[in-house]
Design brief:
The protein has ten helices and eleven strands. The chain has 361 residues and is of the alpha+beta class. It has one domain. Helix 8 runs parallel beside helix 9. 46% of the residues lie in helices and 18% in strands.
């Protein structure tokens, strides 16, 4: 399996520096000159092994007893292409996956035939008893430069807690769009693991938005001045000037909102939500209008809406009118209870008179 790699090569350990450059270029490596006689190479892991075999004869011809100062630093990259070295999409997540340095993963080849650097994670480092100038208390890893800038501004306390609790010193060097972080001390490996874990967690949630200065309106420039007075920090977003562009480093929503404000654009936060709520409102109105239509046609409905009282009053009026007419007819047909009682009372005295007459006889 082939992997992308980076390495720092010290040319001063080779007798012919030009030939070393030619060999590296012939194997497809991209060379970047660093300070002194150091050069950064970038290519594939398999090409590095092939170049190593070609460089070993040059190295052994110098007859130096000490261990050479050049090494490979194999950096595992994501295949998606958003690694810290290749740059990738600046608007996407910065999540380089630089593996932790390991002094135990070593090559059995002798020290004089193998390049090794203090800055590498020593995937080709010699065994511990043959390391020479290599110091076991030194660990390095690579992190995206924007992630490190954000951590230095807003997670400085966490970084210092790791450094102080493990009694290590820290060296940071920016190389292009990445940072080489080196820890020195007896507990350097443990501290490097914790620090790299912190960087990995940040890289999962951070996004970098780019804002060209020429595209900012008057309100955006006024907002930028206020942010600059606050140490280039706006809420949870770090604003980092880069020539004619601003890098807004922070959580996705917060960095996007700040970008829109600097450019004088509206921030669309709840477009989908409002669309859904409007649909809910329109669908909820349909049953009410349908019920009102039924009530207006004379159907009896439960008293839920105001329109139902209007529907019930109409049908109730018709029912009451019909009931009153029936009651009047029944009242007219039935004899009045007062008349019958009066007739009975009028008959009662006649019966009493007849009884008294019979008693006299």
């Amino acid at each position: 399996m082939d992997l992308p790699v980076e390495a720092t090569v010290h040319l001063d350990v080779f007798p012919d520096k030009a030939k070393v450059r030619d060999i590296l270029r012939s194997h497809g490596f991209t060379l970047t000159d660093l300070s002194g006689d150091q050069v950064r190479v970038k290519g594939s892991f398999l090409d590095l092994k092939a170049a190593k075999a070609c460089l070993e004869p040059l190295l052994s011809s110098k007859h130096i007893p000490a261990v050479p100062k050049a090494s490979s630093g194999a950096i595992s990259k994501r295949p998606a292409g958003n690694s810290s070295v290749s740059g990738g999409n600046r608007g996407r997540s910065k999540s380089p996956r630089a593996s932790q340095s390991s002094a135990n993963t070593s090559s059995p080849s002798p020290p004089h035939t193998h390049p090794s650097s203090p800055e590498s994670r020593a995937s080709f480092s010699p065994p511990p008893d043959q390391r020479g100038s290599f110091r076991p208390g030194r660990e390095s890893f690579v992190v995206d430069v924007d992630v490190w800038r954000y951590a230095e501004q807003l997670r400085k306390k966490d970084i210092e807690d790791i450094r102080v609790s493990h009694h290590v010193e820290m060296e940071v060097r920016e190389v292009g769009e990445s940072c080489d972080v080196t820890l020195l001390g007896k507990s350097a490996r443990t501290a490097a693991g914790k620090l790299q874990s912190l960087m990995d967690d940040l890289s999962k949630s951070l996004r970098t938005q780019e804002v060209p200065l020429k595209d900012m309106d008057r309100d955006g420039k006024a907002l930028l001045k206020r942010i600059q007075k606050e140490r280039n920090i706006h809420l949870s977003v770090v604003v980092w000037p880069m020539n004619d562009t601003l890098h807004l480093i922070g959580p996705s929503a917060a960095s996007y909102e700040l970008k829109q404000r600097l450019l004088g654009r509206p921030v669309e936060r709840t477009g989908r939500t409002s669309e859904k709520s409007s649909r809910r409102r329109s669908s909820s109105l349909q049953p009410i209008s349908r019920k009102n239509t039924e009530r207006d046609s004379g159907a009896i409905a439960t008293p839920v809406a105001v329109g139902s009282f209007r529907g019930r009053s109409r049908s109730g009026y018709r029912d009451n009118t019909r009931a009153e007419s029936i009651y009047v007819q029944e009242t007219e047909n039935k004899p009045k209870p007062g008349t019958k009682l009066l007739k009975q009372l009028m008959k009662f005295p006649a019966d009493i008179g007849k009884k008294f007459k019979s008693l006299r006889k």
